[in-house]
Specification:
This protein is of the alpha/beta class. The protein is built from 16 helices and 10 strands. It has helices spanning 3-19, 24-48, 52-152, 178-186, 224-233, 237-257, 270-273, 278-288, 302-306, 310-321, 338-343, 353-358, 360-363, 372-378, 391-396, 419-435, and strands at 190-199, 205-215, 221-222, 264-267, 296-301, 325-329, 346-352, 382-386, 404-406, 414-415.
């Protein structure tokens, strides 16, 4: 074969080789085509009698055709790959659009929730300010009345900020002065403490009982035993009950915003029940917020219930008409009408563990301990054993088939987080939601 055809073949091989030289498979393909083209250029002159130039041209033609066919195949594969990539990108784009739309909706709902929470929080703050302002006005009026009485009868002046009603000073057993209690109320240093009430025998928390605790100027907790006597004599129990109710309502509202629920037993004292200023306003407020009926249970002592007159029962009937439920505690005896209690919407009765385990038969002449649960269940009243302090006491109560239990065995009263703490947590949760 002459040098010139060989050079032409070489140039064609090199040119096409460069076109397919990137991947290794292309290099091998071009090499195989070149080998076949060279073989044709050598074999054809001897076998078919073609001249050297014609043989080279045949070999080049084969190489070119084979190379073009290979290139077309590669192009088809590349086109198919690109089409698949376009389809995948279209799917990803749609997924991104869907995620963006979902994220936008979440942000919109979050913004709406935050806005609604701000409105509700502002409304609650304003309501609390009005309640506190009303309390302070009442306290100021009482202070002025006390000063007037002290001026008119100096012999009765005790130098206290609020003069207690007629009562023997020796009966006062409080360990804190009245000024400390009054200052705690004026400066809104009243905390809500919650103790769990559990179902038995599962011991799952079902309810909470709310207690109020005061704090002095140094932040030290003032227990009820330290202030109740002086607060009762000074007429401040209604104020404390009002603040306790306000704290319970605030907590329930915030839990509802977080899609959580809680049922709180809220104690109402005889002083508050008979306070002609406080209790009618309290009932008005609860009627206006009847959506809280499933979350608040008002608790009264047996002595308070027994001393109720027509006016008190009429006010409780207004609450019962709004589906508010009641509980009775500090039961001294069981000689009471369960029919009447059930008719008045009393759905819970509390008995101390000591009374149940040792002297329940002494609490009612016509009721045996083995019949207690059956009788209560027949009237739709659940029994709560309170003041269960240890496992030994719990074992003694197994035969009563109790509905619920309460006491230090299941948890001691703990301070509920205040509005400021819960607001900070809400802001933190919102930031995390936005970041996610």
């Amino acid at each position: 074969m002459g040098k010139r055809p060989a050079c032409v073949l070489y140039c064609v091989v090199v040119g096409l080789g460069k076109a397919f030289m990137n991947p290794l498979s292309n290099i091998l393909a071009v090499g195989s085509y070149a080998i076949v083209a060279g073989a044709l250029a050598i074999v054809l002159p001897a076998g078919l009698g073609l001249g050297g130039g014609a043989a080279v041209l045949v070999g080049i033609g084969f190489f070119v055709v084979a190379g073009l066919a290979h290139w077309q195949l590669l192009r088809g594969r590349e086109l198919l790959r690109l089409q698949n990539d376009v389809v995948e990108l279209s799917v990803l784009e749609q997924q991104l659009r869907d995620e963006l739309a979902a994220s936008s909706e979440r942000l919109r709902m979050l913004a709406k929730s935050v806005s609604a929470l701000d409105v509700v929080t502002n409304r609650e703050v304003l309501a609390e300010m009005r309640v506190l302002e009303d309390m302070l006005l009442k306290m100021e009026r009482r202070r002025q009345n006390a000063e007037t009485r002290a001026v008119e009868n100096p012999a009765r002046s005790s130098g206290q900020f609020l003069s207690p009603p007629a009562a023997a000073p020796a009966a006062i057993s409080s360990t804190v002065p009245l000024q400390t209690v009054s200052a705690a109320l004026e400066e809104n240093r009243v905390d809500l403490y919650l103790q769990p009430i559990v179902s038995l025998p599962q011991r799952k928390t079902r309810f909470f009982e709310g207690y109020s605790r005061l704090r002095d100027a140094e932040g030290q907790v003032i227990e009820p035993a330290q202030y109740l006597s002086i607060a009762e004599q000074a007429g401040l129990i209604s104020t404390i009950d009002n603040l306790l109710l306000l704290r319970c309502v605030q907590l329930i509202r915030r839990l509802h915003h977080r899609n959580r629920s809680a049922v709180i037993f809220c104690n109402i004292s005889a002083h508050s029940l008979r306070d002609e200023d406080f209790f009618p306003q309290f009932v008005d407020f609860m009627e206006q917020n009847s959506d809280l009926a499933g979350s608040l249970i008002f608790e009264f002592s047996q002595e308070t219930v027994r001393s109720n007159g027509e006016q008190e029962w009429a006010q409780l009937a207004r609450l019962a008409a709004r589906d508010y439920r009641f509980s009775i505690d500090r039961v001294a005896d069981l000689t009471m009408s369960f029919d009447e209690l059930a008719a008045r919407n009393f759905t819970f009765i509390k008995l101390s563990a000591d009374s149940l385990s040792s002297r329940v038969d002494e609490l009612g002449a016509t009721l045996q301990s083995s019949d207690l649960k059956r009788v209560l269940r027949a009237h739709g009243i659940d029994l709560i054993a309170e003041k269960i302090e240890d496992e030994a006491m719990m074992v003694e109560l197994l035969d009563f088939e109790l509905d619920y239990g309460q006491g230090f065995l299941f948890g001691e009263p703990r301070r509920s987080r205040g509005p400021e703490e819960m607001s900070r947590e809400g802001a933190k949760t919102a930031r995390h939601a936005l970041a996610g």
